[in-house]
């Protein structure tokens, strides 16, 4: 069941087995029926429940998806047994074993969720009358506990159990609505996108269920009015629904407060969109404050939130409109003002404000006053369009084109002034968004002439803009380039004033940054705008066409000009941002051309493709194609032309291009200084092989691509070798899939193929790879000359992705045995990387039949006497091949053959000198040790060798080598012995002097028992001070045992406070937002493991200092690392031993502050009051940004919300104040 491909078949087998067993038991009459049922349930249901309660997420997912539904539907007794057993085990679970309790709770919620979705939980009168039990099976407190559990999946399953139902018309009870009200406020700020998506999906199901059940209840209510029955209950349910709608709306709007995290804002806005989708908005849906709150969301830094806010506003405007003319004028002026901003994100804000305004009919008068005359006499003569969305869009477009013209005038004077005062890309961005909301093919005929004139002027201005900024983005070094032409004829007074401004704002060094951002964003907007217009607007292709009748807005000549623009940008631009976005616009143009019914348009992509192939083949020194930067936009140009070609046409252009490119790539190796044709061909092939739209089309050309890449490694020209490396990388992804693991030694099986499958799919590669390997392995171990064959690495990389087939050896045409001697020969290579790759490539070549003989041959190559001439790299290479290549095969042998490798025991014993001789490297000893384990040695001999190795390693190697041999040995001793404390003691005593010098001993701490280390180091001030100064991640974990030892002894009170103050300073420094998550997690572990000493302080040793530790805990609970917050949330369970389930951080923040007030409020009310007050006075630390900084590179916690903390502090401060008043009264 752990394998995705086998899970469905295994579940079918499991179903057949338990059904047959049930039939056999039912036919038996030797035992009572209850005993037989109990036996069957124990045998078939308990294993499933154990898996659901376990920690193996993959196993649990497959069982939940394939087996659990079948079992639950098998009979009502099966469902009752599962729920009853899990509920009983949950109640009996001890508080010390939280993981087990969480597992039982998760399994229970999963069973309840599945049972309800399958319709197995029926709602009857008994269930309706029970207030504390939902549907007669789940206690209210248990479900509420699951809704606050720290585990995300448990919370989602519990929420699904509440929201989902087999019948969408099933009434939602008041208890279910109460649980929803408990769950939603705590989970609006979840950091995981998958959790937020699941939450919104379930909320949508709940709202749909509310609406459908509401419609049914309303219908029943109308029928009941005549019968006069159950009126009160039905009306109460409908009132509960309406109250819930109001509560949900207020909750979502209330969480859109200033300073709310992105995750909270996007969840709330998405929830409001769900309310819009069900048709909830009425006249009271938005009050004035909420309406303006949504308008402020149009300034959100995330476009998804802008879009959601616009959707909610639009739904309201469509029904009720917006009457405040003055407010609309202010918004219009604000959006026009944003067109002069130097911040890139303001362009999107202005665009969404314009989109909102165009939906308001009252804005028509303002737009009519703002419309200005354009550079063509035809527009002036046209009548003003009517007050429709298209008419308002045309008026606003005229205004934006006028603003664009003013900005271009400034840019022509000085591009630097335009970048710092009037960036062009804002206006272009707003125009593009405006046109995206208008269907240009449905323009009314009476206004098509005006639209055509406006678009004509707009296209001319976009070309004018591109001409101005092209010198920057076409420069060989566009980043930081400020050419003299960009400064223009700026007078001295402007320059002096700008310098004075920059001295105060820190913008002196950002002038090139502003310039390049302005230029490449302008090119980006021009490209996207032209692509959209050419794709959306109707085109006039001949003089005979009546464009007035057909509403044509573009001409064939304009299409040619646009095509020439894209060609220039993609072939000459050097800025990646510019040509990547130009590619997007060019794709839209090509898509339109390939599908055009006009021959003049349809043949343009073919002509352009032929022309670029001629330019690539010519390899002229004067070519405008960029040979650096991975050929810049050339691959994007060809990619756009071939990917948009319709499949139904046979992709003739693609096939022709692939053949020509492969012919260039497989051409003879050049010895000249450049070979730009081959470089361009390989870079283009790389882009085509990576494109998912061509995944099936490129497969016939994959083998030739591999050959071209491997042969490219042999070139004398660096540019060709670099392109071959990139091409090889894309081919590996195309053949074996996207890499799922960063570790090369632990590749996922999904990234591998059997050797038989690979060579059957690419048969021409068999002899090619073999020839290249033979050539590369010749004289590879020659120590006199250091030479690495260029083709060796790619060949080994391919062979390392293969694994043996069950039919290996049956196909004589592709015998993998031919590769073995050449792979083994690579073990003598002096380069470590080559030996590692050769060891991994050996595995798919060896079968179970010849593994022992091959192992014997390898050991024979290792001398038995260390005094004999030995090549260290060769010995290490052989040991690596035994470890990496032969061990996986040996481990899969059947039991009858297990003794075969142990026949080599004498050969291994004769070569023990490898770990005994101190001159040999640590990695060589490590390889020998692991190889011994691979061959199933007797544990007694192995332990003897390990202990011998460890003793000599500590004697002759430096401390950092422990991570290779000593650490590996420690793991093995811990695995094979029952008491590893002796080893730990020896290790820590050896490392004790190293601690005084602050050396890193994390390699040993990772496997050691911290309490034992703490006892060995002692509780003296010396070592405690050294530990406090260390400030390392795992090093801090050792503090908890030091605190226990230190506080258990009678020491001077001043010394105690001094030591704990030193600890506080260390934790405060290590827990800041600027620190790594490892350090923060270590601090959280210290607080969790020392909760009684640091936070509760029952003996009042720390005094006011304990509140400082509480502050660290509260701050860590608001960090952005999930594991850190979960660890701090566990502190609540340490403070309340009766709590068995850890709560989520959002709830733990409230409860921890409450616990601090409960613990310290009685004995130190003043300190508790002052602590809460001081926390409330603290302002959030904001890193000031110098002036109009374009990009923020400062460290910040994006999930911390000070407003939430302030509300909690206000609540608990009032509780303390109430206690003080009550105590004074008493």
Can you tell me about this structure?
The chain is mostly helical and 1226 residues long. The chain is 67% helix and 1% strand. The protein is built from 63 helices and six strands. Residues 374-379, 490-508, 893-899, 933-1037 and 1180-1188 have low confidence and may be disordered.
Write a compact overview of the structure shown.
By secondary structure, this protein is mainly α.
Main sheet, how many strands, which sense, barrel? 2 strands, antiparallel
The stretches of 5 or more residues where confidence is low (pLDDT under 50) are 374-379, 490-508, 893-899, 933-1037, 1180-1188
What share of residues are in beta strands?
Answer: under 5%
Dominant shape: globular
Number of distinct beta strands: 6
In spatial order, strands of the major sheet run 1-2
What structural category do the secondary elements indicate?
A: mainly alpha
**What's the assembly state of these chains?**
single chain
How far apart, in Å, are the first and last alpha carbons?
66 Å
Global Rg? 37 Å
Mean pLDDT: 78
Q: Count the helices. How many?
A: 63
- Helix fraction bin: 55-70%
List its salient traits.
1226 residues; two-stranded antiparallel ribbon; two-stranded parallel ribbon
Topology at a glance:
Blueprint: H1 4-27, H2 33-44, H3 46-53, H4 57-74, H5 76-92, H6 98-117, H7 125-129, E1 133-134, E2 138-139, H8 140-147, H9 152-163, H10 174-187, H11 193-227, H12 231-254, H13 262-277, H14 288-296, H15 303-320, H16 325-338, H17 345-358, H18 364-370, H19 377-381, H20 389-413, H21 415-421, H22 425-436, H23 445-473, H24 484-487, H25 492-505, H26 511-536, E3 539-540, H27 547-550, E4 554-555, H28 556-572, H29 576-594, H30 599-602, H31 604-618, H32 634-643, H33 652-665, H34 676-690, H35 702-712, H36 718-736, E5 753-754, H37 755-761, H38 764-777, H39 792-799, E6 802-803, H40 820-825, H41 832-842, H42 851-860, H43 872-890, H44 899-902, H45 905-910, H46 913-916, H47 922-934, H48 939-956, H49 966-976, H50 981-996, H51 1002-1005, H52 1010-1017, H53 1021-1030, H54 1039-1048, H55 1053-1070, H56 1077-1089, H57 1091-1096, H58 1105-1116, H59 1122-1129, H60 1131-1135, H61 1145-1160, H62 1165-1177, H63 1202-1225
Parallel strand pairs: 3-4, 5-6
Antiparallel strand pairs: 1-2
Helix pairs in contact: 1-2, 1-4, 3-4, 4-5, 4-6, 5-6, 6-9, 8-9, 8-10, 9-11, 10-12, 11-12, 11-13, 12-13, 13-15, 15-17, 16-17, 17-22, 18-20, 20-21, 20-22, 20-23, 21-26, 22-26, 23-26, 26-29, 28-29, 29-32, 31-33, 32-34, 33-34, 34-36, 35-36, 39-41, 41-43, 42-43, 43-47, 47-48, 48-49, 50-52, ...
């Amino acid at each position: 069941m752990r394998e995705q491909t086998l899970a469905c078949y295994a579940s079918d087998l499991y179903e057949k087995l338990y059904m047959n067993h049930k039939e056999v038991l039912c036919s038996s009459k030797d035992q009572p029926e209850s005993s037989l049922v109990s036996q069957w349930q124990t045998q078939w249901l308990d294993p499933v429940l154990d898996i659901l309660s376990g920690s193996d997420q993959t196993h649990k997912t497959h069982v939940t998806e394939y087996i659990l539904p079948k079992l639950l539907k098998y009979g009502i007794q099966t469902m009752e047994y599962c729920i009853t057993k899990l509920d009983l085990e949950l109640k009996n679970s001890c508080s010390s074993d939280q993981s087990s309790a969480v597992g039982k709770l998760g399994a229970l919620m999963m069973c309840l969720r599945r049972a309800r979705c399958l319709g197995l939980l029926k709602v009857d009168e008994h269930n309706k009358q029970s207030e504390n039990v939902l549907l007669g099976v789940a206690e209210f407190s248990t479900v509420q506990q699951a809704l606050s559990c720290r585990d995300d999946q448990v919370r989602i399953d519990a929420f699904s159990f509440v929201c989902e139902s087999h019948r969408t018309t099933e009434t939602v009870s008041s208890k279910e609505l109460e649980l929803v009200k408990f769950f939603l406020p705590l989970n609006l700020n979840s950091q995981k996108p998958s959790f937020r998506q699941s939450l919104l999906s379930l909320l949508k199901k709940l709202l749909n269920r509310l609406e459908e059940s509401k419609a049914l209840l309303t219908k029943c209510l109308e029928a009941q009015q005549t019968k006069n029955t159950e009126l009160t209950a039905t009306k109460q349910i409908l009132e509960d629904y309406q109250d819930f709608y109001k509560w949900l709306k207020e909750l979502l709007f209330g969480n859109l407060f200033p300073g709310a995290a992105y995750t909270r804002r996007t969840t709330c806005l998405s929830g409001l969109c769900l309310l819009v989708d069900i048709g909830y908005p009425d006249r009271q849906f938005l009050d004035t404050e909420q309406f303006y709150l949504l308008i402020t969301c149009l300034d959100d830094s995330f476009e998804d939130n802008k879009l959601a806010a616009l959707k909610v506003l639009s739904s309201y405007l469509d029904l009720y409109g917006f009457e405040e003319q003055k407010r609309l004028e202010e918004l219009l002026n604000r959006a026009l003002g944003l067109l002069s901003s130097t911040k890139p994100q303001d362009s999107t804000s202005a665009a969404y404000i314009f989109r909102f305004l165009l939906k308001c009919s009252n804005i028509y008068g303002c737009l009519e006053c703002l419309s200005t005359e354009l550079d063509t006499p035809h527009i002036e003569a046209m009548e003003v369009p009517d007050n429709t969305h298209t008419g308002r869009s045309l008026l606003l477009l005229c205004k934006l084109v006028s603003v664009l013209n003013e900005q271009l005038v400034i840019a022509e004077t000085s591009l630097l002034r335009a970048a710092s005062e009037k960036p062009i890309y804002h206006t272009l961005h707003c125009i593009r968004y405006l046109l995206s909301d208008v269907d240009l093919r449905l323009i009314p005929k009476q206004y098509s002439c005006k639209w055509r004139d406006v678009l004509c002027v707009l296209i001319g201005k976009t070309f004018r803009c591109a001409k101005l900024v092209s010198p920057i983005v076409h420069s060989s070094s566009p980043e930081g380039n400020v050419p003299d032409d960009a400064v223009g004829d700026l007078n001295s007074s402007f320059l002096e004033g700008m310098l004075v401004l920059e001295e105060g704002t820190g913008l002196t060094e950002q002038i090139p940054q502003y310039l390049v951002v302005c230029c490449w964003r302008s090119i980006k907007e021009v490209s996207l705008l032209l692509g959209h217009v050419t794709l959306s607007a109707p085109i006039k292709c001949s003089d005979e066409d009546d464009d007035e009748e057909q509403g044509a807005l573009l001409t064939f000549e304009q299409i040619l000009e646009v095509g020439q623009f894209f060609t220039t940008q993609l072939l000459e631009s050097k800025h990646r941002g510019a040509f990547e976005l130009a590619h997007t616009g060019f794709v839209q143009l090509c898509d339109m051309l390939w599908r055009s019914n006009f021959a003049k348009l349809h043949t343009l992509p073919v002509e352009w493709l032929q022309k670029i192939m001629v330019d690539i083949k010519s390899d002229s020194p004067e070519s405008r194609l960029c040979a650096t930067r991975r050929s810049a936009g050339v691959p994007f140009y060809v990619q756009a032309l071939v990917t948009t070609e319709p499949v139904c046409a046979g992709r003739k252009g693609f096939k022709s291009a692939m053949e020509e490119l492969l012919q260039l790539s497989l051409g003879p190796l050049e010895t000249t200084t450049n070979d730009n044709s081959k470089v361009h061909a390989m870079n283009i092939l790389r882009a085509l092989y990576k494109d998912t739209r061509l995944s099936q089309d490129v497969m016939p050309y994959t083998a030739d691509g591999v050959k071209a890449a491997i042969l490219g490694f042999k070139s004398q020209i660096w540019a060709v070798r670099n392109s071959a490396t990139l091409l090889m990388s894309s081919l590996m992804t195309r053949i074996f899939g996207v890499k799922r693991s960063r570790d090369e030694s632990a590749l996922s099986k999904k990234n591998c193929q059997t050797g038989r499958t690979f060579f059957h799919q690419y048969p021409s590669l068999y002899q090619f790879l073999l020839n290249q390997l033979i050539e590369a392995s010749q004289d590879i171990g020659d120590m006199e000359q250091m030479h690495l064959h260029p083709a060796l690495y790619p060949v080994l990389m391919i062979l390392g992705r293969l694994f043996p087939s069950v039919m290996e050896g049956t196909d004589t045409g592709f015998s993998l045995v031919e590769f073995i001697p050449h792979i083994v020969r690579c073990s003598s290579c002096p380069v470590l990387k080559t030996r590692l790759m050769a060891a991994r490539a050996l595995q798919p070549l060896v079968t179970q039949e010849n593994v022992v003989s091959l192992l014997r041959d390898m050991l024979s190559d290792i001398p038995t006497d260390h005094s004999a001439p030995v090549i260290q790299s060769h010995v290490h290479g052989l040991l690596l091949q035994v470890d990496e290549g032969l061990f996986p095969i040996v481990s899969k042998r059947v039991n009858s053959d297990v003794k075969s490798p142990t026949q080599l025991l004498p050969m291994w014993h004769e070569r023990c000198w490898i770990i005994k001789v101190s001159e040999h490297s640590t990695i060589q000893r490590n390889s020998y040790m692991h190889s011994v384990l691979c061959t199933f040695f007797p544990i007694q001999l192995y332990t003897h060798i390990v202990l011998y190795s460890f003793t000599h390693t500590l004697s002759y190697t430096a401390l950092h080598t422990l991570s290779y041999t000593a650490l590996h040995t420690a793991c093995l001793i811990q695995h094979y012995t029952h008491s590893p404390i002796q080893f730990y003691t020896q290790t820590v005593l050896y490392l004790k002097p190293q601690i005084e010098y602050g050396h890193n001993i994390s390699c040993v701490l990772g496997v050691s028992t911290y309490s034992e280390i703490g006892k060995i180091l002692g509780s003296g001030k010396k070592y405690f001070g050294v530990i406090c100064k260390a400030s390392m991640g795992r090093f801090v974990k050792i503090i908890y045992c030091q605190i226990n030892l230190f506080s258990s002894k009678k020491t001077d009170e001043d010394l105690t406070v001094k030591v704990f103050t030193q600890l506080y300073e260390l934790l405060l420094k290590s827990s800041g937002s600027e620190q790594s998550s490892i350090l923060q997690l270590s601090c959280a572990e210290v607080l969790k493991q020392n909760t009684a000493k640091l936070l509760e302080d029952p003996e009042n040793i720390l005094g006011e200092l304990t509140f400082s530790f509480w502050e660290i805990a509260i701050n860590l609970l608001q960090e952005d690392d999930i594991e850190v917050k979960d660890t701090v949330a566990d502190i609540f369970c340490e403070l309340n031993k009766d709590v068995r389930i850890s709560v989520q951080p959002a709830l733990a923040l409230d409860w921890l502050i409450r616990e601090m007030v409960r613990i310290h409020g009685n004995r130190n009310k003043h300190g508790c009051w002052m602590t809460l007050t001081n926390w409330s006075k603290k302002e959030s630390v904001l890193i000031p940004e110098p002036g109009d900084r374009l990009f923020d590179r400062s460290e910040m916690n994006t999930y911390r919300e000070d407003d939430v903390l302030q509300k909690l502090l206000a609540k608990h401060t009032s509780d303390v104040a109430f206690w003080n008043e009550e105590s004074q009264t008493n």
